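Methods, example record. To illustrate the input and output format used throughout this study, we show the complete record for Dolichol-phosphate mannosyltransferase. The sequence lines were provided to the predictor; the line carrying structure tokens was produced by it.
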Amino acid sequence: MLADSLVIIPTYNEKENIEKIIRTVFALATPFHVLIIDDGSPDGTADIVKQLQGEYSGKLFIEERKGKLGLGTAYIHGFKWALRHTYEFIFEMDADFSHNPSDLPRLRQACLDGADLSIGSRYVTGVNVVNWPMSRVLMSYFASVYVRFVTGIDIHDATAGFKCYRRRVLEKIELDKIRFVGYAFQIEMKFTAINYGFTVVEVPIIFTDRTEGTSKMSTRIFREAFLGVIQMKLSSLFRNYK
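The corresponding predicted structure is encoded as:
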């Protein structure tokens, strides 16, 4: 079946989750294609995907990269792949079910209703996070407060990684100039889209921490985001968004 929507899922050691997340996406009433970007997972994640390709021919794709190259570069790779094809709606989603695939049609609908970028937001209607320790909730919540303060963008969940882009957003953003690779990547993409004048809408979701596999969060990633926001804001003052 033809689909105008592509879900990009970066993976590194997600063998516990990958088959289930793929099957869940393809079970949705709305047709989606799926692109896995695997960074050389030593646990055999890519092999599981390739086995499933026979079952989901023409709908499931995989791009394999050598080594762990970072979340941001994985999405940039996926965005470029999507733009070479005919997709109108291009999604970011984690493999670990912290993002519920059943919310994909809601993000798509927000773009159909006028958004250029829709964000699955944990904080637009309070704090909707399940299974996180309070320290992690507070760190994430106040990171978004910090981003709003420094950048001036009116986004409640600035580090959110569950998103739907209209094609025109990714065509406009100079993807090779996106500098950050960790959580700062998520902030930079939103910040850049808003500076280009695109309409961004937050769609409330419930975020559930992973139950299988291990988290990729680290203090280095958080530090990049903290310092990167200041660098990003300063650089934007000398950039012409047209």
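Annotations derived from this record:
Strands lie at 5-11, 33-38, 60-64, 89-92, 117-121, 129-130, 163-166, 200-204, 207-208.
The radius of gyration is 17 Å.
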